[in-house]
Amino acid sequence: MLPSTLDELIEALRCLPGVGPKSAQRMAYHLLQRDQRGAGRLATALQKSLAVLRHCERCNTFTESQICERCASTQRDASLLCVVEMPADLAMIEQTQAYNGLYYVLMGRLSPLDGIGPRELKLDKLLARASDGVVREVILATNFTNEGEATAHTISELLTARGLHASRLSRGVPVGGELEHTDSGTIAQALVERRAL
Ligand code: ZN
Questions:
Q1: Structure confidence at residue 2 (pLDDT)
Q2: Cβ neighbours of 21 (radius 10 Å)
């Protein structure tokens, strides 16, 4: 029988994606036996993140303030709104230096098999954001995977129904491609050659 504190730690580690009972056990022993300082840092960072980080009211990404720095900037073209799946995708598009509009981060994608529908993805928040009267074009930059394509399709229908203009990155990004693994030249090209939906 494991002591219950250890049991709890192992059980808690299983909340990480792809971590089963065996790896959770290995992680727990590693943290306790080999890296107590690392374990302490992890615990503190987790606690602080939970207490301090929240979603930007405008773009939905993680931030420490109500509205993130990018959304608050006056140097950005507020008539363009680029919709991405994750903050890592936003970072990829920023890296191209070919885009100076604002963003909306979905924090996921539609995934019916995992029970993630329009409601779970809070598409209402995106629609409200896109309907601020300033946004003139919503660029759908979800991944070119099946789920990313389905997400772009659903969003474009919702936007069009509200009289908003949507566009999609051009096919420069390969089929099945994720922005995260696409070079910035290709993404820049796909942005320039985006097509209206
Ligand atoms: Zn923001």
A1: 67
A2: 11
pLDDT at 83: 98
Query: How far is residue 16's CA from residue 87's CA, in Å, rounded to a whole number?
Result: 19
What global pTM score does this model have? 0.83
Q: How many whole angstroms from 90 Cα to the centroid of ligand 1?
A: 11
Distance CA 81, CA 101 (A): 6
Cα–ligand 1 centroid distance for 5 (angstroms): 39
| CA 3 – ligand 1 centroid, Å | 44
Mean pLDDT value of segment 35-48: 97
Sign of CA dihedral 84, 99, 93, 59: negative
| Ligand 1 center–CA 153 separation, angstroms | 24
Mean of pLDDT values over 1-15: 90
In this structure, the number of other CB atoms found within 10 A of the CB of residue 128 comes to 10
pLDDT digits (tens, 9 = 90+) for 109-135: 999 888 999 999 999 999 999 999 999
Residue 72 CA to ligand 1 center (angstroms) comes to 7
The rounded Å distance from CA 105 to ligand 1 centre is 9
Distance 190 CA to ligand 1 centre (A): 23
